[in-house]
């Protein structure tokens, strides 16, 4: 059984219009929400073995908060350049290439690709994963390369403004 946790990066700062999109940092709310959402995972004893993140500053910063709260070493964060601005099919290729030694992986990325991936993986009724939103999807497979569209089962969906904890 494989479990995939999709995490959209926390809220980013748009104040500096000189910055490229890739280099936008987290804003005040993003810096608050990321550790809060990681704590919710910890409270549910949902700790991924590996965090695979977009290298964009806002996504990597989100991953660092999650790694810190969940007690993962920084070595537990892998940057994957193809996650940035990825389509659902590109994200699927990345997932299919995960090392089978890991049974629970978190993928930290961006919309619209992340939401489209979630919809395609488990036919969920979520139409927009908000910033720092998380969705846990479980698959009945032993190998990541067996995962394809509509083979997952949504186990959890949470986001900063929800009342689920």
Give the SSE map.
Blueprint: E1 2-8, H1 28-43, E2 50-53, H2 57-70, E3 77-79, H3 88-96, E4 104-109, H4 113-122, E5 134-139, E6 153-158
Parallel strand pairs: 1-4, 2-3, 2-4
Antiparallel strand pairs: 1-5, 5-6
Question: How would you portray this structure in words?
Answer:
- The chain is an alpha/beta fold.
- It has one domain: Phosphoglycerate mutase-like (Rossmann fold, 3-Layer(aba) Sandwich).
- It is 30% helix and 19% strand.
- The protein is built from four helices and six strands, in the order E-H-E-H-E-H-E-H-E-E.
- Strands 3-2-4-1-5-6 form a six-stranded mixed beta sheet, with helices on both faces.
- Strand 2 (50-53), helix 2 (57-70) and strand 3 (77-79) form a beta-alpha-beta unit.
- Helix 1 (28-43) runs parallel beside helix 2 (57-70) and helix 3 packs across helix 4.
- The longest helix has 16 residues, at 28-43.
- The relative contact order is 0.24.
- The mean pLDDT is 95.
């Amino acid at each position: 059984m494989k479990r995939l946790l999709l995490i959209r990066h926390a809220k980013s700062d748009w104040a500096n219009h000189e910055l490229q999109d890739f280099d936008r940092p987290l804003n005040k709310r993003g810096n608050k929400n990321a550790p809060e959402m990681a704590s919710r995972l910890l409270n549910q004893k949902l700790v991924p073995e590996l965090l695979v993140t977009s290298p964009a500053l806002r996504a990597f910063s989100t991953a660092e908060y999650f790694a810190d709260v969940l007690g993962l070493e920084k070595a537990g964060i892998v940057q994957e350049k193809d996650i940035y601005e990825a389509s659902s099919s590109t994200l699927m290729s990345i997932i299919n290439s995960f090392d089978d030694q890991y049974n629970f992986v978190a993928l930290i990325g961006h919309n619209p690709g992340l939401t489209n991936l979630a919809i395609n993986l488990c036919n969920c009724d979520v139409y927009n994963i908000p910033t720092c939103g998380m969705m846990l999807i479980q698959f009945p497979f032993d190998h990541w390369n067996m995962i394809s569209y509509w083979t997952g089962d949504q186990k959890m969906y949470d986001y900063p403004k929800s009342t689920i904890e």
